[in-house]
Write a structure and sequence with these properties.
Layout: H1 9-18, E1 23-27, H2 28-41, E2 49-53, H3 60-68, E3 72-75, H4 78-86, E4 94-97, H5 103-111, E5 115-118, H6 122-128, E6 136-141, H7 165-177, E7 182-187, H8 196-217, E8 221-225, H9 243-257, E9 266-269, H10 273-276, E10 280-291, E11 295-299, H11 308-312, E12 318-320, E13 331-337, E14 346-354, E15 361-364, E16 385-389, E17 395-399, H12 404-407
Parallel strand pairs: 1-16, 2-3, 2-9, 3-4, 4-5, 5-6, 6-7, 7-8, 8-9, 11-13
Antiparallel strand pairs: 1-10, 10-11, 10-15, 12-15, 13-14, 16-17
Helix pairs in contact: 2-9, 7-8, 8-9
Bound molecules: pyridoxal-5'-phosphate.
Length: 416
Amino acid sequence: MTKELKYSDEFIRLLADQYPTPFYLYDERMLREKARLFNRAFEWNAGYKEYFAVKANPNPELLKIFRSEGLGCDCSSLCELLICERLGIVGDDIMFTSNDTPVSEYAYAKKLNAIINLDDISDLGILEGCGGLPEVICFRWNPGALYNVSSVIGNPVEAKYGLTTEQLAVAFAAAKSKGVKRFGLHTMIASNLLDEEFFVLTARSLFERIVELRDRVGVNISFVNLGGGFGVAYKPEQTPLDLLKIGRAISGEYNKFFDGGDLSCKIFTESGRLVAAEAGVLVTRVIHKKDTYKKYVGVDASMANLMRPGMYGAYHHITVVGKSNVDGYSNETVDVVGSLCENCDKFAIDRNLPVLDIGDLLVIHDAGAHGYSMGFQYNGKLRCAELLLEESGDIRIIRRAETFDDYVATLNINNW
Ligand SMILES: *Cc1c(COP(=O)(O)O)cnc(C)c1O
């Protein structure tokens, strides 16, 4: 099976002639399509909002595109809040979902009137100490052994996030007694899941908690946040999620609990991956070939540009400009590696690819989320540029590549 090529080979070649590799390339049209897909899937719910998980891709040009499609931002750190503030994204357009949160960050989220999602009952007192509680409070629920899925996050009982089911009642009762007016409930226990039923189950479990909390502590929860975790079909043989189908199924569950009038509840999501991953590729060039106990192909990108394969063993599809999807090239099995002095710096292990030559351009697919943003500078590696293919067809550099001056910017270099 092959993955659809998002950019023509000719186009990638032209870009690589103009911009030094490696670089990220995002497609505005596709980013908008994905944002609209979320809005369409939940259009039955008045007040629905997708809060794009900023950690997946904090480039302000992408955030601006998402904002123009009506998305909000899900932040979890001060820098993410500051980026949103600079873009004029504040108030209800920010969901602040953090854990182990410094007091100063709660204070800043409160200053921006963000919707604050608390990770523990103790956070209520901490937030109260930041000049009083806001009108709206959300709590993050960890369902524990209620349901268990294998995922990047792992078994919920072992996960550091959120409050237990029992603690929820105590937490909401406490918030209510302290004068909080509006309440929300959040959960996020899985990552990169392609099981549609899971998201419906998650929604139903949240709706059940709402009924339970209304009966037990008399709080009216006005929104639920289903979290992120919507998976991407990274492998060609995987079936992509049908988000519209998920939306319809959740609507069915919703109607069992709410009448849409007095009894209603807004639905929020905070996906990063499914919004941005497929619209982004990492373009890199073959600079070495090496035949030892295995066949290796060395490229000019490294794990410092895209950490997912090295960190999680994650699969990213790779195509070769001018050779994949073209007849007449024989294949061979290779490891595609970067130049870090770490053996996990591999984009692919035992991957069957057309026989590669020095200078060949590789396109690493589905890298638009948790790609550039997870980059780092270990081994003196500099982060690469990010390019945006605008809807008009123009190319814009939305982040330049780092230089040595950037690398030493935090040092007092004059004292060397
Ligand atoms: C990482 C994260 C997300 C986004 O996850 P995706 O896999 O990109 O959908 C959303 N919410 C929280 C709390 C997260 O930690």
